[in-house]
């Protein structure tokens, strides 16, 4: 299993854009990683090494989680469950609200997307404060899923999201961490 220190080759492929979307923010842009075939392949391979089975569904959080969920699901022989922003899914849905810095937001899944007891791996590109990821866990559990693990490419540990997920009894893995910014 590769450690965060061993993933320097992946870290180098992630571009930092200062002062985006507002001054003082260091935006970690994975588009440069996605443009690099070898980097993308290494990322998926190393994320897979950290998964503990069995996994019935890989749940990707909109939008960048949609990039990694299908690749992981194919390798695991699992299905893909899409966690969408409110108003994006047709048909019957279930939803979970969560707090933002100024207000609230909502994520949804189809009401029939997850069989009770399904083992679900939660996936996204980045874990920051953990608000969306924690809401996703609550939503999946509301649907009857068993959620024990979440995988991310990037962790921003100073923002506490991974630690908050661990308090929710989720095993959290990431490939690279950007501390202090």
From TrEMBL:
One GO CC term, this protein: cytoplasm
Protein location: Cytoplasm
Superkingdom, taxonomy of origin: Bacteria
Limits of the Phosphoribosyltransferase domain: 51-153
EC number of this enzyme: 2.4.2.7
Record field: catalytic activity: AMP + diphosphate = 5-phospho-alpha-D-ribose 1-diphosphate + adenine
GO biological process, one term: adenine salvage
Enzyme class: transferase
Pathway: Purine metabolism; AMP biosynthesis via salvage pathway; AMP from adenine: step 1/1
Stored InterPro entries: Ade_phspho_trans, Adenine_PRTase, PRTase-like, PRTase_dom
Primary localization class, coarse: cytoplasm
TM helices/strands, residue ranges: none
Keywords, alphabetical: Cytoplasm, Glycosyltransferase, Purine salvage, Transferase
Single annotated GO MF: adenine phosphoribosyltransferase activity
Description of how the protein assembles with itself and partners: Homodimer.
PANTHER family documented for this protein: ADENINE PHOSPHORIBOSYLTRANSFERASE (PTHR11776), PHOSPHORIBOSYLTRANSFERASE DOMAIN-CONTAINING PROTEIN (PTHR11776:SF7)
Record-linked HAMAP family: Aden_phosphoribosyltr
Function of the protein: Catalyzes a salvage reaction resulting in the formation of AMP, that is energically less costly than de novo synthesis.
Recorded family membership: Belongs to the purine/pyrimidine phosphoribosyltransferase family.
Name the record gives this protein: Adenine phosphoribosyltransferase
Species name: Stakelama sediminis
């Amino acid at each position: 299993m590769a450690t965060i220190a061993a993933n320097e080759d992946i870290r180098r492929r992630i571009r930092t854009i200062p002062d985006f979307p507002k001054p003082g923010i260091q935006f970690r842009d994975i588009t440069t990683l996605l443009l690099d075939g070898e980097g993308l392949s290494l990322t998926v391979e190393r994320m897979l090494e950290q998964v503990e089975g069995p996994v019935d569904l890989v749940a990707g959080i909109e939008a960048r989680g949609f990039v990694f969920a299908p690749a992981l699901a194919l390798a695991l022989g699992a299905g893909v469950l899409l966690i969408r922003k409110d108003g994006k899914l047709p048909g019957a849905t279930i939803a979970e609200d969560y707090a933002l810095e100024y207000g609230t937001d909502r994520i949804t899944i189809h009401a029939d997307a997850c069989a009770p007891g399904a083992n679900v791996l939660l996936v996204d590109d980045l874990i920051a404060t953990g608000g969306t990821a924690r809401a996703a866990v609550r939503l999946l559990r509301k649907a009857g899923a068993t959620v024990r693990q979440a995988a991310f490419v990037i962790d921003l540990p100073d923002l506490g999201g991974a630690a908050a997920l661990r308090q929710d009894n989720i095993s959290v893995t990431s490939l690279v961490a950007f501390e202090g910014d």
